[in-house]
Amino acid sequence: MFTIKNHLEVENNHLIIGGADITELANQYGTPLYVTNESRVVENFKAYRKAFPDADIYYAAKANGSFAILRMLARQGAGADVFSYGELYMALLAGIPREKLLFNGNSKTDYELQTAVELGVRVSVDSRDELHTLSEIVQKAGKEVEVAFRVNPDVSTKTHPKISTGLRTSKFGIPSEEVVSIYREASGLPGILPCGIHCHIGSQILDTAPFHEAAQKMMDLVEKVTTLGINLKFVDMGSGLGIPYKKDERAPTPKDHADAILPIFEERTKALGISPKLILEPGRYIVADTTILLTRVNTVKRAAKNFVGVDAGFNLLIRPAMYDSYHYAVVANKAASPPEDTYTIVGPICETGDILAHDRELPHIEKGDLIALLDAGAYGFSMSSQYNGRPRCAEVLVKDGVADVIRSAEDVGELMAKQKLPARLM
Ligand SMILES: *Cc1c(COP(=O)(O)O)cnc(C)c1O
Questions:
Q1: 340 CA distance to ligand 1 centroid (A)?
Q2: Could you state, in chain order, the average pLDDT of each consecutive group of 10 residues for the chain (426 residues)?
Q3: Quick one: which of 312, 322, 318, 378 has its CA closest to 346?
């Protein structure tokens, strides 16, 4: 037995996750299949909490919205960053208390804002226009709402442009120079209780300098807002901590993240004589490395490249096609065999961009082999689709060698589920 990456082990040439042999899971549940190691989710959450012992950890539900995962995190005391009515609904159902939720979003519907107000969930307001809408909604409802403002701190993160959210030109947040005036306006609006400040600068960040820079800019704003006489109850620094997708890549740990922001946070709050709660919103770090996407080889073709056609495509894992992401690939039934050839792993979708892994040195591959794409727990299933007439696959959760289905595979019935024919086409 040896460890291949993090918690993943190899025994008798087979990949083992959470004590379960991957080849047996494939036989029992079929492929494609998402497999999550329950203990690893808890370990990752605890690592964040240990690094930030006095902070609240709000899991970013969009990274992986599986109900079982939300439930596990709720039981660990997590809060959640929710970005839609759907995520809000699921988080509450999973048992995350409403006072540990922050309703985020740059384009919320009136219905979403009304729901947050009715339920007493805090809202992160993304524009002045939204502030006015929210003020009308609370007045009509005869209620009050606690709000934060999402700040655009203008920090460059050197991550993929599609996941860099804190740049000046990003659609998220309120420009720093408008922040003070918006708090001033908010504190005069009926029913609006400004009590937090929020930022989130991007995702898959592999260097702590941007966290440090954002924290400094945020604390400058905290000072200005405090000077207005507003009592900030929380400062939410978001997250975006990256993980090492490549085997020998280095990534900062939650401890490194904490070292980049805690000293500034503590020093500046102390100087101001205030004690807001610090909030972090990790998504990827909590779930990415907990899960593999298991897929079976349908066909091998020697052409311009050695193409391995598998049964999962960007319908199930869009990250390589969308962000040029790298996922480490293992031939799960030959996990200890030496590499023999270079392979490009492609999905079954009718698009040339449906490539899961380029030019990998792998053991000899043939029809029926199992390929595991590692670190697929964040922005994997949660971004899946039925494109090309493909029902979504099942998800299983493994703990101490025992697997449970946490989402059944869809079948073609689900492709038809909401479709209707006008009478003239009957
Ligand atoms: C996506 C998102 C997160 C989580 O980002 P990760 O890179 O997954 O850690 C946190 N906060 C907000 C507001 C987000 O949109």
A1: 39
A2: 92 97 98 98 98 98 98 98 98 98 97 98 98 98 97 85 77 94 97 97 96 97 97 98 94 98 98 98 98 98 96 98 97 98 98 97 98 98 98 98 98 97 96
A3: 312
Residue nearest to atom 13 of ligand 1 (CA): 200
b/e per residue, 358-370, with b = 16+ CB within 10 A? eebebbebeeebb
Contact 61, 73 (CB under 8 A): no
Half-sphere exposure of 399 (CA within 13 A, CB side): 13
* CB within 8 Å of 252: residues ≥ 6 apart: 205, 206, 207, 208, 241, 242, 260
Tell me if 90 sits within 8 A of 67, measured CB to CB.
yes
CA nearest neighbour of 195 among 154, 162, 148: 148
294, exposed or middle or buried, with CB in 10 Å at 0-12, 13-18, 19+? buried
113 Cα distance to chain centroid? 22
Number of the ligand 1 atom closest to the C-alpha atom of 163? 7
Q: Which listed residue (195, 199, 350, 393) is catalytic?
A: 350
pLDDT in tens, 11-34: 999 999 999 999 999 999 999 999
Q: Cα(333) to centroid of ligand 1, in Å? A: 34
Question: Residues, the chain, total?
Answer: 426
> Which pair of structure tokens corresponds to residue 352?
């040339």
350 counts as catalytic: yes
**Looking at ligand 1, which residue's alpha carbon is closest to its atom 2?**
60
CA gap 93, 75 in Å, rounded = 12
The pairing of strands 370-373 and 329-331 is antiparallel
pLDDT value at residue 168:
81
Quick one: which atom of ligand 1 is closest to the CA of 104? 13
Give the amino acid at 189. L
Residues framing ligand 1 (Cβ under 6 A) = 60, 62-63, 81, 104, 200, 203, 238-241, 281-285, 378
| Tokens (6 digits) for 214 | 């954002």
Distance 204 CA to ligand 1 centre (A): 10
Distance 161 CA to ligand 1 centre (A): 15
Pocket test for ligand 1, best of 62, 83, 279 (most atoms within 8 A of CB): 62
Residue 338 tokens read as 């030496």
Q: What is the pLDDT of residue 423?
A: 97
Q: Could you read off the pLDDT of 46-76 as tens digits, one per residue? A: 999 999 999 999 999 999 999 999 999 999 9
Phi/psi for 175 (5° steps) reads -55, 140
